[in-house]
Amino acid sequence: MTETMQRIVLASRPDAKPEPANFRLEEVPMPIPGEGEFLARTIWLSLDPYMRGRMSAAKSYAKPVEIGETMTAQVVAEVVASHHPDYAPGDIVIAPFGWASHGISDGTMIEKIDGDAAPLSAYLGVLGMPGTTAWVGLNDIAAAQPGETIVVSAATGAVGSLVGQLAKLKGMRVIGVAGGAEKCAYAVEELGFDTCLDHRALDKAELTEAIAKAAPDGVHVYFENVGGKTLEATLPNMRDFGRIAICGMIAWYSGADNPAPAPVVWGAILRQKLRVQGFIVFDHWNRRPAFLEEVAPLVKAGKITFRETVEDGLQNAPAAFLRLLEGGNFGKQLVRVGADPA
Amino acid sequence: MTETMQRIVLASRPDAKPEPANFRLEEVPMPIPGEGEFLARTIWLSLDPYMRGRMSAAKSYAKPVEIGETMTAQVVAEVVASHHPDYAPGDIVIAPFGWASHGISDGTMIEKIDGDAAPLSAYLGVLGMPGTTAWVGLNDIAAAQPGETIVVSAATGAVGSLVGQLAKLKGMRVIGVAGGAEKCAYAVEELGFDTCLDHRALDKAELTEAIAKAAPDGVHVYFENVGGKTLEATLPNMRDFGRIAICGMIAWYSGADNPAPAPVVWGAILRQKLRVQGFIVFDHWNRRPAFLEEVAPLVKAGKITFRETVEDGLQNAPAAFLRLLEGGNFGKQLVRVGADPA
Fold it and tell me: Which residues of chain A have a CB within 8 Å of the CB of B154?
């Protein structure tokens, strides 16, 4: 009997909205670590909206996932066998193993973490890639300043919830935009946002008006996760010389949504003299030590709140991912793939 | 007999394309300068695409021109009477008198110029607002660097022609985009651009392909004057971390042109991690001394070429302006309103 592992591969590219048939669960032989490599088992798998982009063949940040290839992801994993001098069984790592139960590595792109400093799952969320994204976007890309007003879309998502909390700690006025009354209540009551607007209850004109009311002196910074209606409602409220950090555009990943014509956004950038910058955190990974130095103590001290939606079992990752794209998660979306360390 | 002056006012707002009926020539009493004021007569009137924006009531850089108000413009004028200690008859000034034969001023927004250092009309073009725009956009907004590749739209216009020449002097590879074979030949043969693409002879796909061929390693900087097809063809050719300085969008000022949907530009900014910034030179006017220090000697030494399209007579300004919006000018569009100083 050969030992096996599980992985989920891209079976086909989505036409517009991804569906279950775009994914396939495979059972394959367990890889054997060679000299200078280790084998680890996945405990937590991270699901993030950017993975939608990797499913398409179009040019994006990174090469797309090829048909038949394992879906991209970061995981938290425990080393179970090692021929690498720096890694021993029991070590906990963040690793780019993808949607898979196990992986081997020579240490490239691996970050060893202190399993006692915070819950392991936090290293995929508030202390992981989404947290680093929030911090880099707020500080380095948008150059947010105390006293300014910020609009945060996808306000209760893994990135947005940290953006808003960091902005509050910085002394900013924080306006969240989220889908649904429950998320909005959470943003205000638990995350401490000044206000949160429910984009499902408001049409574009109403949302525009609501932002204007919440930001009577205009919006200095827009942290963009969604595109669509939220962008179109925020743009006219931007102050001259406002900054927009584009981190995602989930509302537009799978096509239409009756988008505005390009001159609407281009004209706003011109007339309002905005600075708009797209970014992906991997280009700013050198900022991770500074991020951890500032934010890890805040998490330990309970000054940063975070929330997770956990799906059990690797086989359920596609369904959880499809719900994530529809906004069905609440906080960081995780899949528990294996048990906690003994 | 009372002395009179002429001015052209906004008679009505254009629905889409401006037309002659949107303007009205008026004969009004000559203003009399009070204490601390001077009267000057216009010699040269500058026509610029940004004036199209002022004709609409929509929010723009500045307040729109009101119905019945004189159309906005910078002019070169000669002081003819003065009760201001700093201005004497015979002084030459750049003044915001608008489309008018005369104006009075208390010195606000007035720049005295050395009439012997360069042709007077140059102070409305290569050494004036368009020139300062080109220099600020290239250096401060786009942070253009030697060795980089730049695409300049409206390449033979007042701004674009200087952007390209300054970029060449900086050691950049310069790709112009202009309308018509004659303009393109001028950009390459007279202005020294590396290449110039005729957007009238190429559809969007062909223009995209032509830019890709002219910039095999991609485009670092796009100096945006036009929007429309040129933008859409340049975007996919931008390198990761490329910068776009948005100075204008003449192709989109009067509506449609079958624009792309917003996600096309927003997605490019995100995926290619572009930095896009709108600007208007008046916010950067403190950079004018540095600009003049660098560029005036280049003009005097003949290292900067410039070309003018001159219309005679204030009454012909509307027709010249409408042609400018259609790309019918060649280089800086001027109206000669009065004779040179004696």
Answer: none
pLDDT digit string, tens, across residues A24-34: 999 999 999 99
- On average, the pLDDT of chain B sits at 93
**Distance (Å, whole) CA B139 – CA B142:** 6
Secondary structure class of A286 (helix, strand, coil): helix
What pLDDT score was predicted for residue B1? 47
pLDDT at A224: 97
Which residue from A61, A252, A276 is facing B276, i.e. has the nearest CB? A276
**Is A261 in Cβ contact with B265 (below 8 Å)?**
no
For residues B24, B29, B35, B37, the Cα torsion angle rounded to the nearest 10 degrees is 30
d(CA A167, CA B67): 44
In this complex, do A262 and B260 lie within 8 Å of one another by their Cβ atoms? yes
Quick check: B61 pLDDT over 80?
A: no
Size of interface A-B (CB pairs under 8 A): 105
Q: From the CB of residue B301, how many other CB atoms can be counted at a distance below 10 Å?
A: 8
pLDDT at B156 over 70: yes
Query: Which candidate from A266, A277, A280 shows the least CB-CB separation from B265?
Result: A266
The 10s digit of each residue's pLDDT in A137-163 is 999 999 999 999 999 999 998 899 999
Q: Is A278 left (phi over 0), alpha (psi -120 to 50) or beta?
A: beta
pLDDT tens digits, one per residue of B321-332: 999 999 888 878
- Flag whether residue A276 sits within 8 Å of chain B, measured between CB atoms: yes
* A265: closest chain B residue by CA: B262
E strand or H helix at A161, and its extent? helix A158-170
Return left, alpha or beta for B187; rule: phi > 0 is left, psi -120 to 50 is alpha, else beta: alpha
**What does the mean pLDDT of chain A come to?**
93
Name the residue with tokens 């220090």.
B293
Closest C-alpha among B318, B313, B316, B317 to residue B336:
B313
Question: Average pLDDT in the A246-259 region?
Answer: 78
What percentage of chain A has pLDDT greater than the value 90? 82
- Our CA-based measurement puts residue A57 at a distance from the nearest CA of chain B, in whole angstroms, of 13
ipTM: 0.82
State the virtual CA torsion across B152, B156, B162, B163 in degrees, nearest 10: 0
Chain B, 283 to 342: residues with Cβ < 8 Å from chain A are: 283
What DSSP assignment string belongs to A96-117?
---SBSEEEESSTT-EE--TTT
CB contact under 8 A, A266 and B246: yes
**What is the set of domains in chain A, with CATH numbers?**
4-125+307-336 (3.90.180.10), 129-281 (3.40.50.720)
Quick check: A276 and B273 CB within 8 A?
A: no
- pTM for this predicted structure: 0.84
Query: What type of residue sits at position B67?
Result: I
What tokens does A5 get?
A: 């592992």
Q: Checking DSSP bridges between strand B275-278 and strand B238-246, what pairing results, if any?
A: parallel
Query: Across chain A, how many H-helices and E-strands are there?
Result: 9, 15
Residue A302 has pLDDT above 50, yes or no: yes
The DSSP secondary-structure symbol of A278 reads E
On chain A, the residues whose CB falls within 8 A of the CB of B53 are 271
**Cβ burial A208-219 (10 Å sphere, 16+ → b, else e):** bebbeebbeebb
Q: Are strands A173-178 and A195-198 parallel, antiparallel or unpaired?
A: parallel
Q: What are phi and psi of B138, to 5 degrees?
A: -65, -45
